[in-house]
């Protein structure tokens, strides 16, 4: 049985965990393929996948997320387990740490069978600036080889009978839904742009409008990101910002005022755009750290399940 162990790792700690798992599964007689997630181009001949991601600001490393996006259909056809690394203290040893919301959503999308959080590693001489600053107070290696190997042995026991897990519906993911929320945000934003000058005069209104724009998009983004499966915050932020820019220039500028002079206004055009992008991205990132709301109504019989995947 061929098992792919793959990881998204910035500083090598998660890769190390992947390799320890590989040793454990190899010792149990499995044919193990070890590969960084960004180098996985297909899952041909793979019978099961163990995917790990380093945690940065409660988000999985982009390579691990990217693998799920690129190979979603193939991942749904094989048993998948996931792991995250990791807390720079002994919290992962003391109790089972649940996956962050973003990882949970990825698990649900592929129907992953289980997840483990392992302690992380941060070396004093870490090469990126942020890591080196953190390492001044938090350096150390909290990966526990015995616990990692033990999970590898657990997987080895489960693998022979494992079947692909249950995919959980992600109602928030469609592109039309993202566009609809963006349009609603733009409509409110345009209404303030048209309404404020009548009350406050053109100069003050431009700056008030720049302040209102991010507040509007915080509210819209909070609603948009609430259900499972919304597009990624960065994707949403850029799509909405480009959409608002195009609609401002096309509808408010060209159609209503008959020129594109709006594009020369720092306070009336560029500043709101920057703030809309930042507000959407930050709201999405914050939302990813919060649990999904509990559905108010039980699902109809036969509807796609919203139950959590089975723990490992
Ligand atoms: C800037 C920064 C942010 C981090 N954020 C988190 C976090 O949100 N949660 C967590 O458990 N660990 C966090 N860590 C710890 C890393 O996940 C840990 O160092 C991990 O082992 C890194 O994996 P890698 O070496 O594979 O890149 C952070 C580390 C750094 C440097």
Structure notes:
The structure is a single chain. This protein has helices spanning 13-27, 62-70, 72-75, 91-94, 101-110, 129-138, 145-158, 175-200, 202-225, 233-257, 266-289; strands at 2-8, 31-36, 48-56, 59-60, 80-85, 114-118, 121-122, 140-141. By secondary structure, the chain is an alpha/beta fold. It folds into two domains: 2-161, Flavodoxin domain (Rossmann fold), CATH 3.40.50.360; 175-289, no CATH class. Strands 1, 2, 3, 4, 5 and 6 form a six-stranded mixed beta sheet that branches. The radius of gyration is 23 Å and the shape is elongated. The two termini are 19 Å apart. Mean pLDDT is 88; it is low at 295-312. Residues 9-15, 54-58, 85-88, 120-122, 130-131, 134 line the site of flavin mononucleotide (FMN).
Topology of this structure?
Blueprint: E1 2-8, H1 13-27, E2 31-36, E3 48-56, E4 59-60, H2 62-70, H3 72-75, E5 80-85, H4 91-94, H5 101-110, E6 114-118, E7 121-122, H6 129-138, E8 140-141, H7 145-158, H8 175-200, H9 202-225, H10 233-257, H11 266-289
Parallel strand pairs: 1-2, 1-3, 3-5, 5-6
Antiparallel strand pairs: 3-4, 7-8
The structure holds flavin mononucleotide.
């Amino acid at each position: 049985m061929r098992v792919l162990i793959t990881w998204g790792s910035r500083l090598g700690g998660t890769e190390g965990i992947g390799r320890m798992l590989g040793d454990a599964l190899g010792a149990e007689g499995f044919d193990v393929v070890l590969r960084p997630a960004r180098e996985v181009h297909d899952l041909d001949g793979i019978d099961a996948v163990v995917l790990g991601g380093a945690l940065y600001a409660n988000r999985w490393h982009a390579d691990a997320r990217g693998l799920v996006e690129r190979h979603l259909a193939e991942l749904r056809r094989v048993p998948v387990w996931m792991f995250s690394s990791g807390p720079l203290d002994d919290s992962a040893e003391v109790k089972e740490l649940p996956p962050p919301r973003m990882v949970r959503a990825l698990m649900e999308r592929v129907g992953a069978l289980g997840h483990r959080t392992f302690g992380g590693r941060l070396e004093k001489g870490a090469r990126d600036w942020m890591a080196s600053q953190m390492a001044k107070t938090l350096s150390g290696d909290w990966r526990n080889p015995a616990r990692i190997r033990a999970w590898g042995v657990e997987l080895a026991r489960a693998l022979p009978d494992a079947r692909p897990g249950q995919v959980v519906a992600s109602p928030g993911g469609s592109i039309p839904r993202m566009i609809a929320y963006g349009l609603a945000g733009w409509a409110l934003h345009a209404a303030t742009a048209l309404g404020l000058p009548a009350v406050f005069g053109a100069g003050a209104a431009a700056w008030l409008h720049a302040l209102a724009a991010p507040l509007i998009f915080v509210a819209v983004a909070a609603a948009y990101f609430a259900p499972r499966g919304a597009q990624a915050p960065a994707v949403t932020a850029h799509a909405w910002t480009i959409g608002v820019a195009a609609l401002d220039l096309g509808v408010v500028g060209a159609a209503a005022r008959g020129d594109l002079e709006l594009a020369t206004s720092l306070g009336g055009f560029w500043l709101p755009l920057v703030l809309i992008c930042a507000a959407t991205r930050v709201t999405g990132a914050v939302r990813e750290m919060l649990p999904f709301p509990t559905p108010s109504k039980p699902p109809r019989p036969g509807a796609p399940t919203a139950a959590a995947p089975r723990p490992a």
